[in-house]
User: Fold this.
Amino acid sequence: MEIEEVLTYLGCFGRYQRFIFFLICFVMLPCAMVRHVSVFLGASPDYYCKVYDNQTYELDSSLKQCTIPREFDNATNQWVWDQCRYYDVDINITHTSPDCFPSGEASTCQNWVFDRSQFDDTIVSEFDLVCDREWLLGLSRVMIPIGNIFGAIILGQVADIYGRKHTFFTSLLFTFIAGFMTTFSPNLITHLIGQFGLGFFHTAVYIVAMVIGIEIVTTNYRPMVITMFLSFHVVGSMLLSMLAYVVNNNWQRLLFTVSISWLIYFPYYWLIPESLRWLIDQRRYMKAHSVIDKISRHNDIELPPNFFSKTLPSFMDERHHPATLLSAFKRRHIAFRVFVACLVWFTIFCTSYGINVKSTTLLVNPYLRPLVGAAVELPAFFLTWLFVHTIGRRIVLSISMLLAGMSLIASSLTNQVIIIITFAFLGKLFISCSYAVAHLMTLEFLPTPVRGVGFGVAIASGCVGTVVSPFIEKLGVAWLPLPFILFGGTTIVAGILALFLPKTFNRKLPETFEEGVAMKRSDSKSKNEVSDAEKAEELTEHLAEVDED
Assistant:
């Protein structure tokens, strides 16, 4: 008996599925906070050399003019203060004004004074990540994405071998621990290790939550599940921005609040079940029997006496060897689809970075950026939900990526602010659509035995894009539009290749490698392409026939 038919009979999106769905929606909030928290942790305030104890930051003063070198910038028509050197002078501080007596050339700073008007305290001021140590700030900003890369692949595979639920809660626990380790880190090395741990474990929470959500519902509800998960993720980034504003971006208070929020989700252990699809794939029929019974009771579904004997091959568990990603790569169709998905995710993250660079130059206030982003992303997600039901997944993915790539290229070839703003927001809209469809399609074409690790590899590819994008941006030294043309061009190529992914609209999730290989690009209706009502009717008729026999 097909698992999709069993879930349909138990209620396609019944009371119990809705309950689990909303629980997982709220997990997206801290996931978004961890993903974006380094933006605020590593915010870089203005600074200059500290020349005496208890000195405070000043925009301009006679003391600053006397001790800090400056040069006139003709491009901005302003004086620019040197941030890494100072004049070695004798300072006589009085109650009225300082008297400075220059005594040589400018010297290299040992201590700095920071502007705390916008950011109370960041890791830049905490660990002096300025001047010749500024490269460490860049490293800290990519530690969470680097952790994402390793965690997505390793823990995605663990979720396929040892189960979604155990991986989810183990990762949740260690995300909580890594958060506190990072918050109270006594030095930069400990902080960087903590950030890596945050990225490593929190990405597994995100991946497994997505997999559980997509596996607990039937075909027609999958786009809605992805749309709502991503929408809550956007809300989480908005909450992070507001929280950072409330704590005046004090990095320890911000990270402590984000870390402590994970405690809310520990009771989920007694509420969220193991994935029924994974249990049956792993031939753990005793636990599957228990999960089916729980779903039927909460949905007020009365099961026929012969239900379990006809839906589960056995009441006893059987020995089964879990599949790995290498097992999937032995099937060339699946390997090719994973490759295309990885390219799609890589280019989506690169293009998102390029669009964010364009929009960031126009929107200086860091607290408003997530709010403006949400104003574009939320409509994009709901438009995607509508279009994938009418046009289809592949067409929406391909068109949105083509338009996003062209928008980014167009925004890089002009100096007109209004044109840059227009194409930046259009690009943000289209790439957000691509992001939503990429989630949906990747989860839909991967077979159950490798859905966790396959989705993890795709996300890891996107995180690679996040890590390498700042280096690609540096190509702008040779020609300013070059990195954005590269971002946009690869996105266009990936959008074309996306047309070679299989059609997943109104088709059941593949439960085996054979079913995964059998998925075609053809738009003709397959034997697996039936509505939820037809599936429930077929199962009811089958059970009735067995009773008559």
